[in-house]
TrEMBL record:
The record marks 236 as: Plays an important role in substrate specificity. Pathway: Amino-acid biosynthesis; glycine biosynthesis; glycine from L-serine: step 1/1; One-carbon metabolism; tetrahydrofolate interconversion. Catalyzes the reversible interconversion of serine and glycine with tetrahydrofolate (THF) serving as the one-carbon carrier. This reaction serves as the major source of one-carbon groups required for the biosynthesis of purines, thymidylate, methionine, and other important biomolecules. Also exhibits THF-independent aldolase activity toward beta-hydroxyamino acids, producing glycine and aldehydes, via a retro-aldol mechanism. Thus, is able to catalyze the cleavage of L-allo-threonine. InterPro entries: PyrdxlP-dep_Trfase, PyrdxlP-dep_Trfase_major, PyrdxlP-dep_Trfase_small, Ser_HO-MeTrfase, Ser_HO-MeTrfase-like, Ser_HO-MeTrfase_PLP_BS, SHMT-like_dom. Keywords: Amino-acid biosynthesis, Cytoplasm, Methyltransferase, One-carbon metabolism, Pyridoxal phosphate, Transferase. This is Serine hydroxymethyltransferase. Homodimer. PROSITE patterns: SHMT (PS00096). Gene3D superfamilies: Aspartate Aminotransferase, domain 1, Type I PLP-dependent aspartate aminotransferase-like (Major domain). The modification N6-(pyridoxal phosphate)lysine is found at residue 237.
Length: 428
């Protein structure tokens, strides 16, 4: 096998001069991201333009307040940056109001609580082991401590959301807020069904689209806009933006949402992140992004089919989006063991619980994989059988303790990755 073509680290002359130790770590991470097959569904590559925007002099500004209503002077340019991001968010997602200031997804969700509930109120969200998120009222989160969290799950026979349970719980518990969306949900979210239930019990419906925002922007997943009162999302993942977040809503909720973000939960926005969000939204409005979003889903479906053909058990039997959840019970390899072996093979995944998992969360039965990053690199459906083969060989190697096999796979992965340069990373 020929030696893989290696990418070169980005040039960071000032950083290298000031802190060579840190510069070396950054360079090592650049190399790692170039050489490995990144299958964590919440990760992606940003464009060089988004990367540059996060490192601009906008970092130097404090801008408490909103455009035209700041508590600091010198905001002539910042107001325009934030307005660009807001208007682009409204256009891309078709919403009446957008707030681009939340620091990340969890604070964005917390702002929804602050806007529409009081401490001790009941909230209804998807249980974490079933695919939900910590901030949807799970007990170990502040949202489950300050509010009364009630959880719905999935059907044992299909692993799909049990809407009979959702409706029964909503009628019984009368929650102030209902959350839909999650972190390990491989199927289309039925926003219309959630909206109907929320209206029946007079609850605020918050659609957490952090994982699927890019798919929605690209028309590869139905939008929650006609059904949800509030939409929460991160700006990275499938949207290919910086590590930030947004809250979007109907105009009638704009004041409550904005007040909850500032001054309710945070001070000055991170203006360099706002600028990068604006860039990402401009990219998401391009026709090529629709192609990208649909390619992400096509790759995920092709990868799921290839894994099924190799005898793997997939939660819900497959995927409708970017994410595949694999139950490794039948392979007799725990998820954590498999994830670490795959990492040594140059295939980056995360171990994950599966619905009704008998194992503990830190040592679960499954792994979670996704196709946003590999699609950003240009891999298509024709490469998914090879990816499935590598996963299968790695899991088998993990079962046998065969480190040599993992080393061979890592070389194969690096060679293929060299042929598909990643956005934002240089090539030799």
């Amino acid at each position: 096998m020929s030696q893989p073509r290696m990418s070169q680290p980005l040039s960071h002359p000032a950083l290298s001069a000031a802190d060579p130790e840190l510069a070396a770590l950054v360079g090592a991470e650049e190399q790692l991201q170039a050489d490995t097959l990144r299958l964590i569904p919440s990760e992606n590559y940003v464009s060089a333009a988004v990367l540059e925007a996060t490192g601009t002099v906008l970092q130097n500004k404090y801008s408490e307040g909103y455009a035209g209503r700041r508590y600091y002077e010198g905001q002539q340019n910042i107001d325009q940056v934030e307005t660009l991001a807001v208007e682009r968010a409204k256009a891309v997602f078709g919403v009446e109001h957008a707030n681009v200031q939340p620091y990340s997804g969890s604070p964005a969700n917390l702002a929804a609580y602050l806007a529409f509930a009081e401490p001790g109120d009941t909230v209804l969200g998807m249980a974490l082991p079933m695919g939900g998120h910590l901030t949807h009222g799970w007990g170990v989160s502040a949202t489950g401590t300050w509010f009364r969290g009630v959880q719905y799950g999935v059907r044992p026979d299909t692993a799909l959301i049990d809407f009979d349970e959702v409706r029964d719980l909503a009628r019984k518990e009368r929650p102030k807020i209902i959350f839909c969306g999650g972190t390990a949900v491989p199927r289309t979210i039925d926003f219309a069904a959630f909206g109907e239930i929320a209206r029946e019990v007079d609850a605020v419906l918050v659609a957490d689209i952090a994982h699927i925002a890019g798919l929605i922007a690209g028309g590869a997943h139905p939008s929650p806009v006609p059904h949800a009162d509030v939409i929460s999302t991160t700006t990275h993942k499938t949207l290919r933006g910086p590590r930030g977040a947004m809250l979007m809503s109907r105009a009638s909720h704009a004041k409550a949402v904005d007040k909850a973000v500032f001054p309710g939960l945070q001070g000055g926005p991170h203006n360099h992140t706002t600028a990068a969000i604006a860039v990402a939204l401009r990219e998401a409005a391009a026709p090529s992004f629709r192609d990208y979003a649909h390619a992400v889903v096509a790759n995920a479906k092709a990868l799921a089919e290839a894994l099924l053909a190799r005898g793997y058990d997939l939660v819900s039997g497959g995927t409708d989006n970017h994410l595949v959840l694999i139950d490794l019970t039948s392979k007799e390899v725990p998820g954590k063991v498999a994830a670490k072996a795959l990492d040594r093979a140059g295939i980056v995944v995360n171990y994950n619980t599966v619905p009704f998992d008998p194992r503990k969360p830190f040592d679960p039965s499954g792994i979670r994989i996704g196709t946003p990053s590999l699609t950003s690199r240009g891999l298509g459906t024709d490469r998914m059988p090879l990816v499935a083969e590598w996963i299968d060989r790695s899991v088998q190697a993990a079962a046998k303790g065969d480190e040599d096999a993992l080393t061979v796979i890592r070389g194969e992965v690096a060679e293929l990755m060299a042929a598909y340069p990643a956005p934002g990373l240089p090539t030799a």
